[in-house]
TrEMBL record:
This is FMN-binding glutamate synthase family protein. Gene3D superfamilies: Aldolase class I (3.20.20.70). It comes from the Bacteria. One of its GO terms (molecular function) is glutamate synthase activity. One of its GO terms (biological process) is glutamate biosynthetic process. The keyword Membrane applies. Belongs to the glutamate synthase family. PANTHER family: ARCHAEAL-TYPE GLUTAMATE SYNTHASE [NADPH]. The chain crosses the membrane at residues 6-31.
Amino acid sequence: MNIVDILMVIVIGLGALILLGFIFFLVYLYIFDRNQKAHSILRNYPGLGRMRYFLEKIGPEFRQYWFNSDTEGKPFSRDEYEHIVKSAKYKRDIVAFGSKRDFDEEGLYIRNAMFPKLAEEIKMDRETKVYTKRYILIKDPLFSQREEKWENEESLAQLLHDDDAVVIGPNTKFPFVLKGLIGMSAMSYGALGKSAITALSKGLALAKGAWMNTGEGGLSPYHLEGGVDIIMQIGPGLFGIRDKNGEVEWDELKRKSEIPQVKAFELKLAQGAKTRGGHIDGEKVTPEIAEIRKVEAWKSVDSPNRFHQFSDVGSLCEFIEKIREHTGKPVGMKIVVGGNDSVEELAKYMRDTGKGPDFITVDGGEGGTGASYQELIDTVGLPIKSALPILVATLQKYGVRDRVKIIASGKLFTPDRIAIALAMGADLVNIARGFMITVGCIQTLKCNSNACPVGVATTDPNLQKALVIDEKKFRVVNYLVTLRQGLFRISAAAGIDSPIHFRPQHISYKDEKGVVTSLERILIEIQEQVDAG
């Protein structure tokens, strides 16, 4: 028998063994599926039924990339997602041919002026510059990797003029002065990994004029890494400033306030996606995170639904006063609006006592979260376009609107959305998921599992390797500067020289019949409802 015959016998023998093994496997699978008690499909269709579960498992990915149209995906459509990615990667927000918006649907529109502002008429900081890097697309072939060039770029930071800077807490010992209208919403270290937080911190610092909210998980070294201004959030769990009994450690709060980057404090009463306390799974509570939060490692952490330090508006405002006196920094609060009378008591108390927050962050129900419950995330709390006007109208009713700055949040990730929020009465805007996308988020919706495949919402060191800080930080810069540039551009189209001048008269509402109503008229109706109580 020659070598060829021997090889043939070996190949046939191996093939027979593989086939026999496969048959035994199918028999085992048939018997196992037929006798298991958890899945009805598998009991009736052994083996074959597993295909159904496989297809169900990969269904979200198929819908996201193949079957959903460019505009129907949730939470962010493909168009919305790609708009953020392209702004961050290429520092470009140009689209071609025409809009994909359904103009037959009802919606808000920005009123263009007959004589828009020229570029030289825009009032802005024309000296402060940013130094970043962006990709230049050279070729984008179908069957091979696109060819790109990474290049350095210098451009204006697109900041407000010094005269237009927004001041939070002007009567505090250390007011917070801002020349940018856009900052990062609350995202804790623990919910996001250290690579993501570091990239965001460095990118926001390079962009200048921005701020970073720590989230209720406490102030981490990674929030401080880039040197960006910080709003330190304090949740009901008092993470980062709590003693062993879960009470405020006032000396620790004082130490945090003495960090130069910490510009303000925010009490988190509620969040749009979860009008409840926060949660972090035990597998994310590493010894480092436990030390930052002052909790026990490897145990799931829940903060209460509310602070036990106060239970009404009076005690809330007294708590705010105590923090302000102890730190010298502005103190605000984050809320969710549920109805026309949600902030009535607060505004009345502010009028009667002269006490209250320096700023209010109002979060819409469409906002994001690392983990929440379906019934809360879908139904509890109004969306930002309803909540914001109610807050403004209530503060105006009691004559205290000018005493407090309003920060709006809830999917305000494009210049037009931001402009509409400013016209509705916001002074500033927070963004969370938009910034997550700049550092690599691909919407796998696994933020609560510690299995984020791109290393953003995970503390797993192996998964975090995917996120290259020195590349992603520039995407943060590019996205933010592009947003600001778009905001100035849309201001010019509306005939105003700065986005701080957006007012209700700059926005129109068109219903499904084509009838146009000014936002000013709509807000008057909301004001009348609030005034009527």
